[in-house]
C-alpha cells in the first residue's frame, strides 16, 4: 500500500522544502526564518505569562541543514527593534538547536503593553541567517485591577438572557492603537459604531464560574473615530446558566474597557459602568442549557433594533443597567484561539414532507450554525426549525432537542441566524413554508476553535483515506470554545475519557497546544479538596466514567510534551496529577495495592473500564473493569516517572517507578489465569492492556500475543471488540508488537463493527456507538487516527 502524509508544523522547527516564498531566487540554498510565534500564537494580544515562550521555524532546500545557535532581540518599540537594539532582551548568540517554546529571559514585562521581537540563527556551517521579519505580542492584564464594573440588564426590564448594552464616549483625536478587553460571564459580541468588530463566534467559551472567568482582547484601532463613538455589547447567557457553579445572576454579565493610545504615549480608558443602558434584543433562549436540553434560539424579526451601537442612536427609552455583585474568582485570558466559522455548506437536497414542512440535507454532519434568508414571508408568519444528525431506526430525525423559531416582519431579506447557541446536525427541518426555500438562501456554518490543521494523509486504499478523513473532520466538529466536547448536541461536556483516547490523534492532526492549555486549567478548577477528579471539565455533573477519564490530567500533558515539547504544561499540572494519584487514588486502593472501585459522587458516577464496546456489555465484565482500571494506574505511574524526570523531581521519579513496578506484579498475580493463559475475561483489551503497560512478564508475552491474535482473527473474524478505551490501547499494542496488519484488517472492514461500517451507512463523522445508537457526531472512536501517522 502506498501512502503519503504531510505535517505542516514541526516541533523541531526545521522544515526542509524544495521551494518556498522565502527563498529569494532559484538556487538560493540559504536558511530563512519564518512563522514566529509567541505561546503558540501569531501576534497574540493577551499573553498572561511573565516569561512568554517564543518559537520559530527555519526553511531551506538544503539537505542536512541544521540550526546550531540563535539570537533573539525583544524591544519596547518597533523603531528600536529596527535598529537591532533589544532594550528588553538581547539574548546574544546562544548555542542551541532549539527553536520551539524558548522562554523569554529579559526585563520584567508590564500589563497591557506591546512588545516587538525578531530572531536570527546560525546554520551547521556557523553562517548566520538574516534577521527574521519582526513579530510582536501584547501582554494581558497580568493580575492588574480591572477598570469598570460588571454590568447586566435588570430582570424587570424584559428578557435579560440576550440583552443589548450600550454607551458612548468621545475621542478628541485619533489614537494610534486601541484595544478592547472584554470579560464576559456568558457569550458576547462586541460592536463599535454600528458594526461587529470581528468574526469571532460564541466567545469566550465556558469556564467554571466559581473558580474562573475568561477575557478576550480585540484590536479595535480601525473601528474608532474622532468625535463620538458608540460602544455596544450584545450578550447571550450560554453556559452562564442556573445549572452551573458560580452563576450569581439571572442573565449574562459583562465587564470591559477600551484603552486607546495616542502618538505621544498618552492613554485613555473607557469602561463599563452604571451609566450604560440596556434593552432586550430580538433573541430569546429555547430551553435551559443543560445536557440534552440545549434547545436553541427564537428570533422575533419584528423586534429587531437597527443601529443600536451607533453613537447617535436614540436610547432614551432604554433602561439603566444594574451592577451585580459577582463573587471573587480568577479572571484569566482565553488561552485557545477564538471560535470562528471555518467552513460553510449549502444544501445537497431539499425534500417536501407535506403540510408546509421541508427537510434540508446539508450533506455532512457539522457543529455550528445556520444562516437563512427569506424574501417572501408575511408579517407575523412563524417558522419552526429542528436540527438532527441522523435518522434513527424508527425513521425519526434524531434532533436531541435542538430547535429554533422565527417570527417574521414581512420584509424582503429577513434572516434567521444563530448567535449564542449552536447545533450538531446534518439535517434541518423547516415548518411553516408554503413553497420550497431556495438552496442559495440556506447556509450551514461549521464553527470551531480556530486551531491550525496540521496534517493530511493519502494512500492507495480509498477506504483507509475515507476513515482518516472522517476522523480528521470529526475532531474539527468537537473543538468548540477552547475545549473538546464529547458531542455538540446532546451533552457538550469535556469528557476526560474521550479526551485521553483521542489526544494523540488530535495533537498530531491539529495544532492543539493552546486548546489543551485552556482545557487543563478547567480540570485544575474542578479538582476536589481531597484530590478527586470529575469525569468532565469544566462544569462537572454526575457523568459516567472511571480512572481512565481522570487519568486524562496526566496523559494529556505528557502527550503535549511528546508532540510539542511543552514542559510548562507538565509543570502547571503536576500538582493536580500528584493530588489525584497520591491523595484520592491512594485512599481507595486496597491493602494489596489494587484499586477495586470508588464511590459515586454528586460530580461523578459509575465505575467504568472500557466503554461503548460493540454490544455494549462492558459493565457486566467486572473482572475486566478492575483489570483495565489497574492497568490505567500502571500507565499513570509510568507517565509520572517520565514527567518527574523531565521536571527534575528525581525522588518522585524513583518513588513512582517503585509504585509502578509493585503494581505490575500485583495486577499480574491477581488477574492472570494460568490455566486459561489469559487475563480477566479474556477480551481483546484484557490482553492488550497488560501487554502495553508491561504487566505481562516477558516469558508469557509470546503466548499472550498469540492468544490476542487468535481472538481477533478467529473469534471476531478480524474485527475489533473494544470501545472508547480499547481502540487506542489495542491499536498501539498491535503496532508495538509488529502486527499493523491486524490493525489494517479491522480498520479496513466495511462490516460491523468498525469505521468502514459507519461509512457504509452514510456516516460523515464518527459515532457514539458502533451500532449508531444515539449520537452520530462523537468522540468515542477517534483514537484510531494516531495509527495513520505512527
Number of strand segments = 34
Q: For the residues shown, what is the average pLDDT?
A: 95
Give the terminus-to-terminus CA distance.
15 Å
Give me the secondary-structure category: alpha+beta
Taking all Cα atoms into account, the compactness measure Rg is: 28 Å
Shape: globular
In what range is the share of β-strand residues? Answer: 25-35%
Q: What percentage of residues falls in helices of 4 or more residues? A: 10-25%
**Number of helical runs?**
14
Largest sheet, strands/sense/barrel? 10 strands, mixed
**Stretches with pLDDT under 50, minimum 5 residues:** 5-24
Structure write-up:
The protein is α+β, with helices and mostly antiparallel strands and 790 residues long. Helices cover 24% and strands 25% of the residues. It is built from 14 helices and 34 strands. Strands 20, 21, 24, 25, 26, 27, 28, 29, 30 and 31 form a 10-stranded mixed sheet that branches. A hairpin with a 4-residue loop joins strand 33 and strand 34. The radius of gyration is 28 Å and the shape is globular. It starts with a strand and ends in a 30-residue tail after the last helix. About 3% of the residues have low confidence.
Amino acid at each position: 500500500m502506498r501512502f503519503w502524509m504531510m505535517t505542516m508544523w514541526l516541533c523541531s522547527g526545521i522544515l526542509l522544502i524544495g521551494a518556498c516564498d522565502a527563498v529569494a531566487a532559484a538556487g538560493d540554498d540559504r536558511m530563512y526564518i519564518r512563522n514566529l510565534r509567541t505561546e503558540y500564537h501569531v501576534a497574540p494580544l493577551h499573553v498572561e505569562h511573565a516569561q512568554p515562550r517564543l518559537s520559530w521555524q527555519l526553511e531551506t532546500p538544503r539537505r542536512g541543514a541544521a540550526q546550531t545557535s540563535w539570537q533573539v532581540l525583544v524591544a519596547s518599540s518597533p523603531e528600536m527593534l529596527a535598529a537591532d537594539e533589544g532594550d528588553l532582551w538581547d539574548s546574544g548568540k546562544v548555542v542551541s538547536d532549539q527553536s520551539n517554546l524558548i522562554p523569554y529571559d529579559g526585563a520584567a514585562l508590564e500589563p497591557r503593553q506591546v512588545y516587538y521581537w525578531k530572531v536570527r540563527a546560525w546554520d551547521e556551517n556557523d553562517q548566520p541567517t538574516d534577521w527574521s521579519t519582526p513579530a510582536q505580542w501584547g501582554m494581558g492584564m497580568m493580575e492588574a485591577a480591572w477598570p469598570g464594573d460588571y454590568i447586566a440588564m435588570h430582570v424587570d426590564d424584559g428578557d435579560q438572557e440576550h440583552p443589548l448594552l450600550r454607551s458612548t464616549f468621545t475621542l478628541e483625536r485619533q489614537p494610534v492603537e486601541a484595544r478592547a478587553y472584554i470579560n464576559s460571564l456568558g457569550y458576547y459580541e462586541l460592536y463599535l459604531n454600528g458594526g461587529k468588530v470581528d468574526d469571532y463566534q460564541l466567545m469566550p467559551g465556558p469556564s467554571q464560574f466559581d473558580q474562573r472567568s475568561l477575557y478576550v482582547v480585540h484590536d479595535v484601532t480601525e473601528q474608532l473615530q474622532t468625535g463620538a463613538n458608540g460602544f455596544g455589547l450584545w450578550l447571550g447567557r450560554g453556559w452562564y446558566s442556573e445549572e452551573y457553579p458560580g452563576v450569581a445572576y439571572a442573565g449574562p454579565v459583562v465587564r470591559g474597557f477600551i484603552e486607546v493610545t495616542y502618538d505621544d504615549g498618552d492613554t485613555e480608558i473607557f469602561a463599563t459602568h452604571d451609566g450604560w443602558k440596556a434593552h432586550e434584543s430580538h433573541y430569546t433562549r429555547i430551553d435551559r442549557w443543560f445536557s440534552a436540553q440545549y434547545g436553541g434560539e427564537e428570533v422575533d424579526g419584528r423586534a429587531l433594533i437597527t443601529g443600536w451601537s451607533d453613537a447617535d442612536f436614540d436610547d432614551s427609552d432604554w433602561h439603566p443597567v444594574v451592577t451585580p455583585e459577582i463573587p471573587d474568582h480568577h479572571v484569566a485570558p482565553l488561552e485557545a484561539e477564538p471560535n470562528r466559522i471555518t467552513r460553510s455548506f449549502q444544501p445537497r437536497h431539499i425534500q417536501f414532507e407535506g403540510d408546509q414542512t421541508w427537510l434540508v440535507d446539508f450533506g455532512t454532519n457539522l457543529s455550528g450554525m445556520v444562516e437563512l434568508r427569506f424574501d417572501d414571508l408575511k408579517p407575523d408568519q412563524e417558522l419552526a426549525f429542528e436540527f438532527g444528525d441522523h435518522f434513527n431506526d424508527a425513521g425519526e430525525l434524531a434532533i436531541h432537542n435542538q430547535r429554533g423559531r422565527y417570527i417574521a416582519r414581512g420584509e424582503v431579506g429577513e434572516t434567521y441566524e444563530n448567535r449564542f447557541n449552536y447545533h450538531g446536525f446534518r439535517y434541518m427541518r423547516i415548518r411553516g413554508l408554503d413553497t420550497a426555500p431556495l438552496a442559495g438562501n440556506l447556509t450551514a456554518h461549521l464553527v470551531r476553535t480556530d486551531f491550525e490543521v496540521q496534517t493530511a494523509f493519502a494512500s492507495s486504499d480509498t477506504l483507509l483515506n475515507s476513515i482518516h478523513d472522517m476522523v480528521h473532520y470529526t475532531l474539527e466538529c468537537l473543538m468548540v470554545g477552547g475545549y473538546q466536547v464529547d458531542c455538540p448536541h446532546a451533552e457538550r461536556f469535556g469528557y476526560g475519557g474521550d479526551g485521553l483516547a483521542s489526544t494523540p490523534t488530535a495533537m498530531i492532526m491539529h495544532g492543539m497546544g493552546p486548546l489543551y492549555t485552556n482545557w487543563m486549567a478547567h480540570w485544575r478548577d474542578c479538582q476536589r479538596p481531597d484530590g478527586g477528579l470529575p469525569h468532565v471539565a469544566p462544569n462537572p455533573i454526575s457523568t459516567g466514567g472511571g480512572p481512565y477519564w481522570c487519568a486524562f490530567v496526566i496523559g494529556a500533558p505528557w502527550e503535549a510534551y511528546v508532540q510539542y515539547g511543552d514542559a510548562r504544561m507538565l509543570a502547571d499540572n503536576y500538582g493536580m496529577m500528584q493530588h489525584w494519584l497520591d491523595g484520592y487514588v491512594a485512599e481507595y486502593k486496597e491493602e494489596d495495592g489494587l484499586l477495586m472501585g470508588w464511590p459515586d459522587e454528586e460530580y461523578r458516577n459509575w465505575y467504568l473500564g472500557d466503554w461503548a464496546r460493540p454490544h455494549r456489555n462492558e459493565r457486566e465484565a467486572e473482572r475486566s473493569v478492575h483489570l483495565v482500571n489497574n492497568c490505567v494506574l500502571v500507565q499513570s505511574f509510568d507517565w509520572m516517572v517520565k514527567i518527574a524526570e523531565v521536571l527534575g523531581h528525581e525522588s518522585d521519579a524513583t518513588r513512582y517507578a517503585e509504585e509502578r513496578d509493585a503494581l505490575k506484579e500485583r495486577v499480574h498475580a491477581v488477574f492472570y489465569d494460568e490455566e486459561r493463559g489469559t487475563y480477566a475475561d479474556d477480551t481483546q483489551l484484557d490482553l492488550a492492556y497488560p501487554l502495553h503497560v508491561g504487566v505481562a512478564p516477558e516469558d508469557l508475552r509470546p503466548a499472550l500475543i498469540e492468544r490476542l491474535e487468535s481472538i481477533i482473527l478467529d473469534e471476531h473474524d478480524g474485527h475489533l471488540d473494544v470501545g472508547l478505551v480499547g481502540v487506542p490501547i489495542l491499536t498501539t499494542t498491535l503496532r508495538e508488537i509488529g502486527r499493523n496488519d491486524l490493525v489494517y484488517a479491522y480498520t479496513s472492514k466495511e462490516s460491523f463493527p468498525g469505521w468502514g461500517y459507519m461509512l457504509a451507512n452514510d456516516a460523515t463523522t464518527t459515532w457514539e456507538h458502533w451500532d449508531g445508537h444515539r449520537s452520530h457526531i462523537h468522540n468515542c472512536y477517534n483514537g484510531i487516527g494516531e495509527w495513520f501517522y505512527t
